Amino acid sequence: MKRRTFCGSAIATLTAASLPLGRLLAAASEPVASDVPAIGLTGKQLVLPRSDLNELRASLRGQLLLAGDEGYEKARRVWNGSFDRRPALIVRCAGAADVVQAVNFGRTHELVISVRGGGHSISGQSVCEGGLMIDLAPMNAVRVDPIARRARVAGGALLGDFDREAQAFGLATTAGTVSHTGVAGLTLGGGFGRLGRKFGMTCDNVRAYDLVTADGRFVRASADENSDLNWGLRGGGGNFGVVTSFEYELYPVGPMLLGGVLIYPVAQAKEVLEFFDGFYAEAPDELYVDTTLITTPEGNKVLILDTTYCGSIEAGERVLKPLREFRKPLVDAIAPVPYVKQQSSLDDAFAYGRHYYVKAGFVRSLPPDLIEAMIETFMSSTLPITPVLTAPQGGAISRVAADATAFPYRAARHNLLIAAAWKDSSGDEAHLSWARGAWKVLEPFTRGFYVNDNNADIGERRVLENYGDNYARLSKLKAKYDPTNMFRLNANIKPHA
Description:
Number of domains: 4
Structural class: alpha+beta
Helix content: 25-40%
CATH topology of the largest domain: Vanillyl-alcohol Oxidase, Chain A, domain 3
Number of helices: 16
Number of strands: 21
Strand content: 15-25%
Oligomer: single chain
Distance between the termini: 61 Å
CATH architecture of the largest domain: 3-Layer(aba) Sandwich
Mean pLDDT: 93
């Protein structure tokens, strides 16, 4: 049997035997029956001619999904269940060529555009209302070169995909703290994680980017090619195009390391946090500790210190000994643990589909008045999931100049966050009221913010203030690569020549 005949027969057999797949293939090939209403960049109501949609569908290796198509409802859902938006069309890209087609279509029709990598955007901006959603989820390949210690990771991959492939060779790089986070969004915002103090931010470890710019060009950005764009992509978010793949530098890590939690009653939180602040100021780069004031499922209010030491287990035992012995915790669960398991330890706490509201800002230390405010703010809530957290920086992160990348807040030692999570819209009023009130108390202690850790109510003034001296350079870069501000669903940088 000839190969072409065999392939055709195999697809026909598979389609007949697998009804869901069959329906998807049918939806991908059926002509669009009518024009589709949509929303333009300026909010103007548009109509997309069915002939143009059929042309787009025929040009794709991936799928074009419209409302009512099999797979549309699933594809439009994102991690933060607070956002229930319905794009006019979703292009599920099979490769960079599909991204080019989608960008060109969006530009030609002046559509509002969102870009979905892992769909983990806290601000929900990976899905748009009435526009074009460019979905990279099918592009999730990870290829590791263990000799060069490099990984090429596609724009739709999740951190868990990346970690598992790299750990097969005993390698890793800074890659967040929740394994179902998207690689692209994390990296473009800067990227923190359990290895950050040792190896720097995620963006510090990208050696090259492949992306599609607003004019539909496929370009590469690195220290040697389009170096201005390479600078802007390191913390400038999704302002400059759709990144289809990243090339990361990897380091020997694990597969076993020391990690786990210390849990204290909230009555001890003040003295433990005050001790921790001094202890952490002198800690080696290998140590990562985040702190969380949280209510347990049983209703107990506690302080959790979540630790990871990425050096030898023996060295980690020595380093953590003072912290473990300062006060006797309710729970000491620090033990050797596989790196991949540690990286997924918070997955259930940040489960997909809940409603979330998060605000964050950077601090250089945890002085007593801030610690008191954190505890008082936390104790003011009677809701089940309203934690007050800190995530560490410092170490290698702080040894990069503020203007060396788009991300400027290198001197901060902690990222201070408040978060609220709830099941459905019936909890909106109570949780949003607490979260906004809590942040009003804590924000004065902060300076700047991590664009990945904030809900959508970020105005232009705050973005400008946040990037500080780097903003003018970013704005000129935006004018060069996206002069019409087509990619605006993000912590948006306005284009200025």
